[in-house]
Amino acid sequence: MKRCTILFLPDKREVEVAAGTTVLQAAARAGIELKTVCGGEGTCGQCAVSIVEGEAEVGQGNMPRKYREAGYVLACRTKALSDLVVEVPDETRVTEQQVLLEEIDRGEVLVEAEPDVLGEYSFQPLARKVALTLEEPTLTENASDLTRLLAALNKQAGVAEVRVGLGVLRRLPEVLREGNWRVTVTLAEHEERAEVVAVEPGPSRTPPYGLAVDVGTTTIVVALVNLETGATVDRRGSYNRQFRFGDDVITRIIHASQGPEELRELQSAALETINALTGELLRANRLDREAVAVVFTAGNTTMAHLLLGIPPDFIRLEPYIPAAARFPVVRAGELGLEVNPEAPVLSFPAVASYVGGDIVSGVLVSGAAEAEPVSLFIDIGTNGEIVLGNRDWLVACACSAGPCFEGGGITFGTRATPGAIQRVEIDEDYEVRVETVGGAKPIGICGSGLVDCLAKLLAAGIIDRAGRFQEVDTPRRRDSDDGPEFVLVWQEEAATDGDIVITESDVKNLLRAKGAIYAGIRSLLKTVELPEEAIERIYIAGGFGNYLNIKDAVEIGLLPDLPREKYVFIGNASVKGARMALLSREALRGAEEVARKMTYLELSAGNMFMEEFTSAMFLPHTDLSLFPSVRGTAGREGR
Amino acid sequence: MKRCTILFLPDKREVEVAAGTTVLQAAARAGIELKTVCGGEGTCGQCAVSIVEGEAEVGQGNMPRKYREAGYVLACRTKALSDLVVEVPDETRVTEQQVLLEEIDRGEVLVEAEPDVLGEYSFQPLARKVALTLEEPTLTENASDLTRLLAALNKQAGVAEVRVGLGVLRRLPEVLREGNWRVTVTLAEHEERAEVVAVEPGPSRTPPYGLAVDVGTTTIVVALVNLETGATVDRRGSYNRQFRFGDDVITRIIHASQGPEELRELQSAALETINALTGELLRANRLDREAVAVVFTAGNTTMAHLLLGIPPDFIRLEPYIPAAARFPVVRAGELGLEVNPEAPVLSFPAVASYVGGDIVSGVLVSGAAEAEPVSLFIDIGTNGEIVLGNRDWLVACACSAGPCFEGGGITFGTRATPGAIQRVEIDEDYEVRVETVGGAKPIGICGSGLVDCLAKLLAAGIIDRAGRFQEVDTPRRRDSDDGPEFVLVWQEEAATDGDIVITESDVKNLLRAKGAIYAGIRSLLKTVELPEEAIERIYIAGGFGNYLNIKDAVEIGLLPDLPREKYVFIGNASVKGARMALLSREALRGAEEVARKMTYLELSAGNMFMEEFTSAMFLPHTDLSLFPSVRGTAGREGR
């Protein structure tokens, strides 16, 4: 078979592939990560590149106008027929920096101060070190090393039932003698069982550490936690390397369903990401891998399956059944995590296919399940997960919001990277002022910017309540081949090759997304027969939520019209909850109780959700009585 | 570095090695197993080969006369300096056939009939299959596959707490749907915990199987047990491939102590042996490896360490402390056993460094620990392990008998292979009649033959009570460079290159060996302050014991002078005990109780053993009152 050499610029990285290989595959092999939401299906239009030299077969695909005009092709639809030189523009490239800015730094800002992290839960870390003095063996006191160790653990630390794995046992004889029968045992305690994770000779000079891992679909964050003080020593985050197999859980499940090899690819990608971050953390803090005694992960149900290599196939097929909702405790070594191989790896239980351990973690962090007043918990991403309840009951649902709040499916949609428009002001002359992440030249609009934009377009009368573009007197309002659109930023002021616009089709996508979330909230309320006013507190979790302007979100009917002071942002609830579990067995039991208590409402069963969704496809809603505070502002005609 | 090609004849196997490599190492790499007791130290004189061509550096070593005279060199002391052609004589080669004959077939003969195997223990196999019908999931009944399985197990099989490992979980979604929500679960139950070993779609057509594995220092025997009927379906045995690292536990420990790589070599050798036997069993019985749901092993403490890859280093160093006496349950897949990777691998607990799970198994099989009368349990090999007690108390010791009862350290010693002398008659004219294993031409003397020979030499007045050779009038009694000797078989009648003799030095070795065993028995009796007459039953375990002539053994003072009817042979107690444990959780608990109850007496502590040993270095003993039945027969002068 003919081989082609593909040179990627400006990286100057070369890779040799068989003729017919797509540029996307070649890029992945060259270590260049291109954005892709659809996993190489040609539908998301993100992986645009420019063919500078050589012959390629360019297939059809859904390509955004800005890329088409720039002469780009979709890497996933373009096959090499000869040696190629390919230029990868910055905007189609996944960089750690972007992702970090988007979710991790934002999370950091909002993480509560250390002392508060456990709330009312007591400090009972999942691992601790115990110094022991063993009796030296003699000819007549000749019990085995292990028996001797267990006796000392029982007598000196009050631990009676304890598992000692082969890995520890193999090193025991040497360690006991090296320490002259004084040793430090690292004990992990969970699920009513204790296990010895490590035995060190003599007294130990280091505390035990834990890793709190947020296994997000987009990003993975690892926090290094000192289990003696409870402090987060350091944290790192990056995009999840599963990225190259698709941007959302569905494309990844489809990939994993192709066979064991593909499932392993996804598992390895997640493990590699965690290992890379962990390696950085350990190097930066001068720790060796043995220092990490326990790992706690939080992720959605699909991520939990993929991390453990459990087939997620049926998560996406009706009736949407995961293989497991509670996950077995595994050894780090067995899984391939590069910490102490004996360290147990735990994870939050899930509730259902689309309400996972990340949501359980969020509810734990919010404290909603411990309080008497009724709370609403919302995590908005590609899926909107919503939980309603209090300490006596919890009901949850998941609604597919689509990727718009993460910048997908929107002409100039982008993640919240520098240059992403996050605030929009439209004055009486339809002149626009935008505010971008980091104050950089605009590159597109991120989720929070889109919510703001939609509210302002409505307020300015540029669109009506149904999202239809109106005839307004400004050159910004124009018609293109793709329908009506509104120019937010002229090319001269933008970092793009053309004007940054929002189209009627973008508005419709946003309407569907916000309608789905709000319909989910209404469905839960209807199910438990409570009015909106019964909600005492609303917790907003996740990266997108953190920068959301609540007033805008209420004005477009995304969130309930309740007093601003009822809204609380809780940031990256996954890593925060995982850290709570690391530091408190009581909190972990709390999370398990949350999962047990939570009733999952499948929205696709029955008509309730579809009825609510249809009613919510207006701005803010067909039933304006639900949005009393919005009435006066919506639409220029209302001024 | 110079490379040399070594050609082994008559195998015609070639191997390339670095110059300076020993012929023993080269043989191992060529897959040719040479006998070696010392593990390549040049002391056992077993690995004799003939250099046919080429230049070699031949080092000093302890070489038996018969080999020296034949022009052989020790493979372990001979280093290749050029390409070599090496002839390997049959007698220095380990063959499966030999070992099989020696221990396995003998064990087979003596295994009790099926129905009796469990004695009073109830039939509660370690694994069973349970057919389950799960409720089919719907949009509103959307619990996970695992939750659904566990609910059915609880409801339909009454199993509440059960572990499901990742391996099973990974296959669960597909199996549940393939079986249309009817499945068969293989459950392993042990240590009060249940675990799912396999889930099959639909009803199962095969019973669950277990492997009972005797991990002997010399031989490994694997029995395939049907856990539904309790029948031993088939069994296979072969020499333990650790053989090449030395014949006894001490040489293997020394090898393992050199480092992790050497320890792994020993572990792999044992695993390879078990896997080869298991593969044969599965093929012969048309089963796939998934059919085996549980593995139970019995072996001495060193073998248990090596099988699990636990460093045995301190077993041989005072105060002789093993790393563990109770061994963790591991997964077959984790260990590298080629059965269902989820199958738990269990083993009998040990009592001390030199009283291992094989002895616990033997005591279990004997029933000694369940009975009211006091019993003595003896397993004679390189070490003699002795247990005394009843259902209320047990005391055990181990005494180093040396390798003579296995044919080591004796000029014409051999294992009990065809041609081994097992019976000796000496008439009044000092003429000798011998009986060999399989009736073949004599090749040497095995353990039971040596006991017989010693008794007959004494009875004939050829040696005195101290083992000294007397002047008797026969050409068979002669003096060689190595001292006095007696010709048992003239060369013309033998399959050897010279006359088969027994030397004074051989007799001294035998005296020390039998003295050690008897002194061990006396030490136990003294410790519990009981007379020999208190012993109601004596159980003789192991391959050597099975062919032992009790009358001879008593006459030389190896075994107590008690009525013949008190002696019981119990054959290969390891594989028998392992099978009992597979078939009865109650029996397994019984074995654990045996280990807990057993007090280990370290003979090297204090003077008691040495005093007893010194007194026992006569035939039968310095204190003839201990051997009332022997008095009349010992020595020709007593005729």
CATH homologous superfamily classification of the largest domain in chain A:
Domain of unknown function (DUF4445)
Task: Tell me the greatest interface.
Answer: A-B, 45 and 45 residues
Distance between the termini of chain A: 69 Å
How many H/I helical runs of chain A?
Answer: 17
User: What is the averaged pLDDT score of chain A?
Assistant: 90
Q: Please indicate the count of domains of chain A.
A: 5
CATH class of the largest domain in chain A: Alpha Beta
Helix coverage percent of residues of chain A?
A: 25-40%
Would you tell me the structural class of the helices and strands of chain A? alpha/beta
The biggest beta sheet of chain A reads:
6 strands, mixed
Label the overall shape of chain A: globular
Based on the structure given, which CATH architecture of the largest domain in chain A is correct? 2-Layer Sandwich
Summary tags:
globular, 17 helices, alpha/beta, Nucleotidyltransferase, domain 5, Ubiquitin-like (UB roll), homodimer, 639 residues
If you had to describe this structure to a student in words, what would you say it looks like?
The structure is a homodimer of 639-residue chains. The C terminus of chain A is likely disordered. Chain A is of the alpha/beta class. Chain A is built from 17 helices and 29 strands. In chain A, strand 13 and strand 14 form a beta hairpin. Chain A is globular and about 100 Å long. In chain A, helix 10 packs across helix 15 and helix 10 crosses helix 16. At the A-B interface, helix 4 and helix 5 of A face helix 4 and helix 5 of B.
